[in-house]
Design a protein that fits this description.
Blueprint (H helix, E strand, L loop, with lengths): L2 E5 L3 H13 L3 E5 L2 H10 L4 E5 L7 H9 L8 E6 L4 H9 L4 E4 L4 H29 L9 H13 L6 E4 L6 H10 L8 E5 L5 H9 L21 H4 L4 E5 L6 H13 L1 E2 L8 E2 L3 E6 L3 H6 L5 H7 L2 E4 L10 H15 L6 E2 L1 H9 L5 H15 L5 E2 L6 H8 L20 H19 L4 H8 L3 H11 L6
Parallel strand pairs: 1-2, 1-3, 3-4, 4-5, 6-11, 6-12, 7-8, 8-11, 13-14
Antiparallel strand pairs: 9-10
């Protein structure tokens, strides 16, 4: 944030404004013509544009109209500046969507105030856009198994409260989805839902991601393209819900600061002199046993009790396999619409194979598998067992193979080498291509871009028989 574009044909005004704004921590770019400014705006995102009304190549108000027609996600706030200000020009600029109108000679104090307010308006607009996107993707908890029915009932009871929630469950079980469902049914449903994956942020940056920073305090010393000021997730979630995923991966130092922010509902951004007060409901999630982490000295006991007001447990997919048909239907609908194939269905033999697989990656693995199968079988309207990846197909065919831990292991994470994983994929793909060609090896070789003899050698190396 805080990127400003100055558009004025007078170099002394450009240089003066640039110097003043950069002293305030803004990242500033300048242009002397409307054409140059429009080219810059098409290549990069700016938050605020200071636009002169008299430019050598076109009228500034004409340029304003073109800026307002840009992609709505990138439209900046535009402040018109003019040495020949009239009420008529100001009214016209406002009707065209200008944020404000400043007359030359510019009052630097007023200019700074207007730019700051325009930045705030731009941020509010982005927050609202994010909220509208979230409205379209609010969490729904799919499944008719006993654990999922109980989970939905628990969400219904606890969501309207302001109690903090701690969600336990293996990776890929849908903990974020539960968090979104909690928010969607809460009293804060009309406010923003902000998420932060604590495991994905380097230790040197996690504090600024959580609490933000002020002028001159950018992590790593700042630099080109680094915002001069940033709001952290706590501040962005003010009035709404903050979802802290993989909270067990935070360092003890960061945990202490989060604990204080939870207790006081206020915090000090890095480099700030005044605390920021917020009203945030925190929902945390972890795939770790936090009580075990406490015993090892890796997690603060007091933070655990602050977060664990309302505990939730999301069962792994292997413990609720009766939900697989519903999940498959949901994912087929999602990806079918995405790839222009709305009527794809899953055959019963394929569903039976999916129910027998042990799903180490849980719902996330199932979702990725459905997308992969749709992509690899672009003409199939009915997905059968033979279309499934070899890992699932083999595991459902012989459960003993899932336990041998060797080359024939059905668990993707148990491949000893990348070569073995690649061979499993190649075998799967060759079988699929031969099936598409109804067993015609010559046509399959042509479709694979191989010589027929080369395909036979490849099949032999991978253990694929002609009969299979």
């Amino acid at each position: 944030m805080n990127h400003v574009l100055i558009v004025d044909d007078e170099s002394d005004i450009r240089e003066s404004l640039q110097s003043i704004l950069e002293e305030e921590g803004y990242v500033v770019t300048t242009a002397a013509t409307a054409g140059e400014a429009l080219a810059l705006l098409s290549d990069a995102a700016y938050d605020v544009v200071l636009l002169d009304i008299w430019l050598p190549d076109r009228d500034g108000l004409e340029a304003l109209g073109q800026i307002r027609q840009m992609d709505s996600a990138n439209v900046p706030e535009v402040i018109i500046i003019s040495g020949h200000g009239t009420i008529e020009a100001a009214v016209r600029a406002t009707k065209l969507g200008a944020y404000d109108f400043l007359e030359k000679p510019l009052s630097l104090a007023r200019t700074l105030i207007v730019v700051k307010n325009a930045m705030h308006t731009r941020q509010m607009r982005e927050d609202n856009a994010e909220f509208q996107r979230q409205l379209a993707t609010r969490g729904t908890v799919t499944g008719n198994s006993v654990p999922m029915k109980a989970l939905r009932q628990q969400i219904k009871l606890m969501a309207p409260t302001n109690g903090r929630v701690l969600i336990f469950g293996e990776s890929g079980t849908g903990k974020e989805l539960i968090g979104r469902a909690m928010h969607a049914q809460s009293l804060r449903k009309d406010r923003v839902f902000v998420e932060l994956n604590c495991a994905a942020i380097p230790e040197d940056y996690i504090e600024t991601e959580l609490f933000g920073y002020r002028h001159g305090a950018a992590p790593g010393g700042g630099g080109t393209g680094v915002p001069a000021e940033k709001r952290g997730t706590f501040e962005r979630a003010d009035g709404g819900t903050l979802f802290l995923d993989e909270v067990g991966d935070m360092s003890l130092k960061t945990q202490a600061k989060v604990l204080r922010a939870l207790d006081e509902q206020r915090f000090l951004p890095v480099g700030a002199s005044h605390a920021v007060h917020v009203d945030v409901r925190v929902i945390a999630a972890t795939n770790k046993d936090l009580e075990e982490e406490i015993a090892r000295g890796n997690f603060r006991e007091d933070l655990f009790y602050r977060l664990n007001v309302i505990p939730f447990y999301v069962p792994p997919l292997r413990d609720r396999k009766e939900d697989i048909p519903l999940l498959v239907k949901e994912f087929l609908s999602e990806f079918g619409a995405q790839y222009g194939r709305p009527r794809v269905e899953m055959a019963e033999d394929a569903l039976a194979a999916l129910r027998q697989y042990h799903w180490p990656g849980n719902v996330r693995e199932l979702r990725n598998l459905i997308e992969r199968v749709l992509i690899l079988n672009p003409k199939a309207q009915r997905l059968e067992r033979k279309h499934l990846p070899m890992l699932v197909y083999r595991d459902s065919r012989d459960p003993r193979e899932a336990r041998d831990g060797g080359r024939n292991s059905a668990r993707g994470e148990e491949f000893a080498t990348l070569l073995e994983a690649r061979e499993a994929y190649e075998r799967d793909y060759i079988l699929k291509k031969i099936d598409e060609c109804h067993g015609n090896i010559s046509r399959a070789a042509e479709g694979l871009g191989l010589e027929r003899s080369h395909l036979y050698r490849k099949m032999k190396a991978l253990g694929v028989s002609v009969k299979e």
